Amino acid sequence: MTSSASIVEVSGLQKRFGNHVAVDDVTFTVPEGGSVGIVGESGSGKTTIARMLVGLEVPTAGTIRVGGRDRMPHASVAERRRRARELQIVFQDPYSTLDPRQTVDSCLDEVLRLHRPELNRKGRLSRMNDLADMVGFDSRQRRALPRRLSGGQRQRVAIARALAVEPSAIILDESVSALDLSIQAQILNLLAEIRSETSIAYILISHDLAVIRQLTDTCVVMQHGRVLEVGETGAVLDNPQSEYTKLLRSCVPGPGWHPTRLRNIFPGGS
Amino acid sequence: MTALNTPIAPARVLRTIRPIPGLDVVGHVAVLLVILFACLAAFGPLIAPHDPNAVNLSLSYGGSDTEHPIGYDQQGRDIFSRLLHGARSSFLGPLIIVAAASTAGMTLAIVGAWRKGWIDATLAGILDSSLAFPGLLLAVMVVAIVGPGIQSTVIALSIAYTPYMARIVRSAAITEISKDYVAAARVQGFSALTICVRHVIPNIMPIVLGQAVLTVAWATVDIAGLSYLGLGIQPPAADWGIMLANGQTGVLQGYPMEAVSAGLCLIIAICSFSLLGERISRRGEAIAA
Amino acid sequence: MGRFLARRIIICVLTVAGASFVIFASLYLAPGDPISFLTAGRPSSPELRAALAAQYHLDDPFLHRYLQWITDAFQGNFGESIARRRPVLDLIFANLPTTILLVIMTLILVVVVGVLFGGIAAFRRGPIDDGIMAAMTVSLATPAFVSSIFLISVFAVGLGWFPVFGPGTDIGDRIHHLVLPAVALTIAWWPVIGETARASMREEHEREHVETARSRGLTPQHIVRRHVFRNAAIPISTVIGLSFAGLVAGTAIVESAFQLNGLGSLLITSVTGRDFPVAQAVALLLVTVFAVTNVVVDLLYAALDPRVQTSWSRK
Amino acid sequence: MSLLSIKDLKVSLPVDKERRVVLRGIDLELEAGESVAIVGESGSGKSMTARAIARLLPRRAVVSGSILFDGRQVLDLKDAALRRFQAAEMAMIFQDPRVHLNPVRTIGDFLVEGLVNTRGSSKKAAEHKVIELLDEVGIPDGTRRLRQYPHELSGGLLQRVMIAAALASEPRLLLADEPSTALDVSTQSDVMAIIDDLCKSRGMALMFITHDLELAAAICDRTAVMYAGQIVEVQGSTDLVEHPRHPYSAGLLGAKPNVSRRVQRLNAIPGRPRAAFEVQNGCAFSDRCRFASEECIASEPTLKHEPGGAVRCFRADDLILNATEGAVL
């Protein structure tokens, strides 16, 4: 154990797809119960990092330590189940995140059967009630198939499904960016509540600086697979160091803001 | 005749049957016809009024009468009874072919789609190239080696239809496996087998089923064609393909009833299977999207 | 593009090699020893047995036999027909013209009828579309041997417009003889093209880029010609290519139904007559044609779709 | 006279066997050279409004009301007259340029076909003109770009190509349907700046569809907020962001996280956005509104015109709404 206070430690992480380097030499840590944001535009490699953390992609180089243990590729089923209790993920697209044939309850039940085998029917039911309360579901919605649920409700189910495993940290991969503004606010509030209640850690991946500000303590700014800047979220956004972070920050509309033409960032622009 | 009335249930039973939601009128007709043909394949030989192989040369090309609604073929056999017997031999082969090809194709496709990498690439390559080789040709080559007969053609066509099945299932499985809920289940620690059996297969089942019903149609064409060419089922068995081959002589002499009746049976059967299969597939795709 | 072409050709060669090996090895899968299988119980002279042993290099090791056979085959030496005592190549050449002419006539008919009616169905919603769809379903469900018999019954026996059987003599006569067979094959295959044409044109017409074109006030004719047809040509030509193999296999059935001297009927008679060298040669020829067709389809696809070109040239 | 005058525009679309209302009566004026933003969440009908003006509604849509463009009734235009209106008077830019360009035709084909097909320009003259336009939208190497295919260009460049195509016909009205939403943050600002510059320098009227009130305020003179197929508030953009009059506008402003400071809790609007066809009696927003009274649930408010704008709320005069803190009484 290097540092007992961090739940995720990533160092020198690299991922190549053929000749293309999607993630290059990325290092960061997530403290227990902390909240880390990864910011970047499309092609920055932020989603690839998320997929490597949960074992959906195999890193080309570098190490991922979760809970003090190295994550080697090709784990046994038992090992993958243990890892599941460390790190869970909520994806972006509310429409493919649930099995269309599964009701909310049966989706949660399936997870509880796997991860809480000691619970009987009654125990699982009471746990499901807790989870449903936490994400704000009534009993009618819990018997519904995903196609009867709105985008925001589906994301709530995905969050409940991740929480059912009782992980130490949840990766939120653009989990609120496909939602309407009024729904996005509900989910952001929900996530903040959950964190204050359970001391779970978040790794929030987003292109939206305002969302990063609202939900994270520290953040990592990425471009073209590389880390440009790491620091306390408020400091990074209020006083950005790298040119790229400055550019991102200057592109967010707000009072008195006006868009500017940025010919210089395009190779073709004069 | 009772034989004609049997598949049509009494009105009391009819009233208890509800329309299938989301299926149009044509689809319902197709379902009824498919059920009718299934009944014919199962009970046709039992309800046939005459021996399909009872030869009576004096009745050669005899016209219809009350006992023999379609008349007689060249050898004076009752065409109607031969049609009823033919239903079984015309559908049994295709059914076995579809069962075999669906099972093999689905297994190959899902393993490929799940494992990705070189296994899938090799599989995709083989599937793509095998598409260029019609099942008919493979069946003909197998017959060249082991001789004519229904077993050899069924085996050959089962192999030939496997890549078609696998290709459709593979693309459906790839779409399904790429969905986030499958990734979520992997992150949850479910085994590949559990995810495939509980989530992936049930979700692509409508597409598989639709393709299977369509394949019944095409396999029926191929089996009948092979029998027509003299490579499949052998005379004097009552089979629609054989009846067409025999009937061709009758056509030239101005007695088309045998060929026309067997041909119409084939067309209606193939139509109903393809209409039904198409509708199931379309529904499956709509659900998957 | 060059690398893509090379890869496709390698796959093509591998396919032909694999298929030819299976075709060759199938002789040894047959029950009994090869010579008696080949002679199939015919009274066989020692000379014939010796000729067969030489033709199949039966005294050599197995792989060597295959290499010899395939080299011979590509030099045009397929041995001799057992039933007809003529070189196989002569038989193939004698039967080739009918099949080629039949395939060309059918292909033209299938493409013209399929694209025409598919296109009409795509743009004329309502009863016209319904009617064409119904026609396609019934037509697709009519096997070529069934439509052959119906056509013979009506147009040859009944009306006497076309000859019943046979291939004809000069070119005009040959075409006349091949009209009914080509129509029979077209009945089975035009719906395949027609359905693709209808679906792809409709799909393209609903695409967002067509919405852009409409928002710019372009004429409907211009939109259909430059955007819908052009884009739908990609799936349509792919399906034409894929149908080609099935269509060629289908010639076996109509050639038999109309008693034409084509490659397909040669294959069938050699199989029923247990003339194995002929069956092997025709099968090998067909497999090669299909594999080459596959390459042509891929090239066509690359030529029509600029996205494919760049993704391949990058690879 | 306004350049564009929309009166009681209603649209319904066929869904399965029933008809679904998507617009429940839109009233909006747009002066020549003016820019107005239409802001709303998904299903509010903001895109439908733009499509109704461009006459791009689905085939079986039923439309009523009036859209006058320069005094002419757009809804009555047919065939050649309609195409002349689309080709010469207006232009539209869409959310995702990648799907709105034909993937198998070159950029050059796309840019030139409009001029050649609807203006009768020669191909050469058209090419010359579009190369100049490309330069104006920040693509200097136009000659090379004309030979490229859409998949060879980035989303930001494609959207500029779309803008250049829109400019080619020198329209008086530009309809921009979320033109920057599908783009990266940095490209987004750039594309908006180009649209803003060109509309101002050419005196083009702009209707800008977006879900972002602050982006709307940065670009447009006026902002209209839509909810459930109706306009609920129109005001000068800056006024609307600072002093929203409708609880929904205030709710949208309060729900948006702020990049320069973190708040304890976002003022989320409860429930989910209603679609136009789901609206029963009463105010469409009443089931989500903190201030809903019995009157709001019983009957439907009308769009009340007042100095500087209009608002559709019974309680607009009782409420003092604050943008940053959300709504307070």
TL;DR?
Chain A is built from ten helices and ten strands. Chain A has 270 residues and is of the alpha/beta class. Chain A has a domain of 187 residues: Rossmann fold (3-Layer(aba) Sandwich), CATH 3.40.50.
Q: How would you describe the overall organization of this protein?
A:
The complex is a heterotetramer of chains A (270), B (289), C (315) and D (329). Chain A has ten helices and ten strands. With 270 residues, chain A is of the alpha/beta class. Chain A has a domain at 6-95 and 169-265: 3-Layer(aba) Sandwich (Rossmann fold), CATH 3.40.50. Chain A has a six-stranded mixed beta sheet with strand order 6-7-8-3-9-10, sandwiched between helices. In chain A, strands 2-1-4-5 form a four-stranded antiparallel beta sheet, with helices on one face. Chain A starts with 5 loop residues before the first strand and ends in a 20-residue tail after the last helix. In chain B, 74% of the residues lie in helices and 0% in strands. Chain B has eleven helices and no strands. The termini of chain B are far apart. Chain D is an alpha/beta fold and 329 residues long. In chain D, the strands form three sheets. Chain D has an eight-stranded mixed beta sheet with strand order 6-7-8-3-9-10-12-11, with helices on both faces. A four-stranded antiparallel beta sheet of chain D has the order 2-1-4-5, covered by helices on one side. A two-stranded antiparallel sheet of chain D has the order 13-14. In chain D, α4 (107-119) crosses α5 (123-136), α4 (107-119) packs parallel to α7 and α7 (155-168) runs parallel beside α8 (185-202). Chains in contact: A-B, A-D, B-C, C-D. At the A-D interface, α7, α8, α9 and α10 of A face α8, α9 and α11 of D.
